[in-house]
Amino acid sequence: MTLLKIAIQKSGRLNEGSLKLLKDCGISVENGGDKLKARANGFDLEVIFLRNSDIPHYVEDGVVHLGIVGENVLVESESKVRILEKLGFSRCRLALAVPKEVDYNDINWLNGKQIATSYPKATEAFLIENNLTASLHLISGSVEISPALGLADAVCDLVSSGNTLFSNGLKEVAVLMRSEAVLIQGEINDLQVKQLVQQLQFRIQSVLNARNFKYVLLNCPVSKIDKMNAILPGMKSPSIIPLVDKNWVSLHSVIQENDFWNVIDALKAEGAEGILIVPIEKMVY
Predict the structure, then answer these.
(1) pTM value?
(2) Along the 285 residues of the chain, how does pLDDT read in single tens digits?
(3) Tally of domains in the chain
């Protein structure tokens, strides 16, 4: 039997997000005893658990067919792989930060300074792009404490909420890149493996599509159907279901998450009643 092999982070937020995504795709993975690999249920898939930084290289070398990794790690690895899907979880940003007391006006302040970072390639690219000259101090962890210890004037590190920077007396001054989990693929020649990749990608796309939409049900006066239809185009057009009261109908449709509140406000203004919002588990085009 041909197995599709995918590498995910051994532990951490990417591990949790990756396993949840697979579960939402109908694929369960048991990793009892911290095994380095596990056979999945619900799909011809084997999951390999690796360090985040190793995943791009394993994919590039063909040891595994796919990987789930942060975009920022992909930049640092410089691996020759391609991104199949942006997965929408583990969002963060690679940012520059300086001590709060520093009189920072613009990025030219960085000239001649020392920057502590675990992401030298992205940081160096930023310096070159902006014609800046600074020394990089490579640190594998606890980057934020470097200025307080006198090791660096600034730091370049991943930021989610910014709480870690704040607690270490730092302020964010520039964003180098925004990152999220991505599905990556190396070169694949086996036709059966290619088919499995397509099947898995289809499942993932269905899950991701569903996260961006909400299912809406509402009661609408018959006289307002055309106006409601203009507000609720849905995938093609809303479904209209007759009610016992012949002056009213029930409209069923789909709303994009980004437009949700604007659409709801517009529906209410046109006389919609009994509006129900239901999450969508999967959406297949």
Answers:
(1) 0.82
(2) 789 999 999 988 899 999 999 999 999 998 655 778 899 999 999 999 999 999 999 999 999 999 999 999 998 998 999 999 999 999 999 999 999 999 999 999 999 999 999 999 999 999 999 999 999 999 887 888 999 888 999 999 999 888 888 889 999 999 999 999 999 999 999 999 999 999 999 999 999 988 888 888 999 999 998 888 888 866 667 888 999 999 999 999 888 888 888 888 998 998 999 999 888 887 776
(3) 3
Residue numbers of the domain that contains 80: 4-89+180-210
Q: Quickly list H helices, 152-246.
A: 163-167, 191-211, 225-231
Residue 165, phi-psi category: left (phi > 0), alpha (psi -120 to 50), beta (remainder): alpha
244 with 229, same domain? yes
Residue 227 lies in a domain: yes
Q: Which of 193, 210, 227 is the last residue of a domain?
A: 210
Looking at residue 262, which CATH number applies to its domain?
3.30.70.120
In degrees, rounded to 5, the angle at the alpha carbon of residue 195 between the alpha carbons of residues 75 and 190 is: 75
22 near 28, Cβ under 8 Å?
yes
Distance of CA 276 to the CA centre of its chain: 28
Are residue 56 and residue 190 in the same domain, yes or no?
Answer: yes
Residue the block writes with tokens 């800046």: 132
**C-alpha separations of 128 from 84, 97, 121, 156, 262 in Å:** 29, 18, 11, 15, 43
How far apart (Å, rounded) are the C-alpha atoms in residues 172 and 154?
A: 10
Q: Rounded CA gap, 98 and 221, in Å?
A: 59
3-state secondary structure at position 60: helix
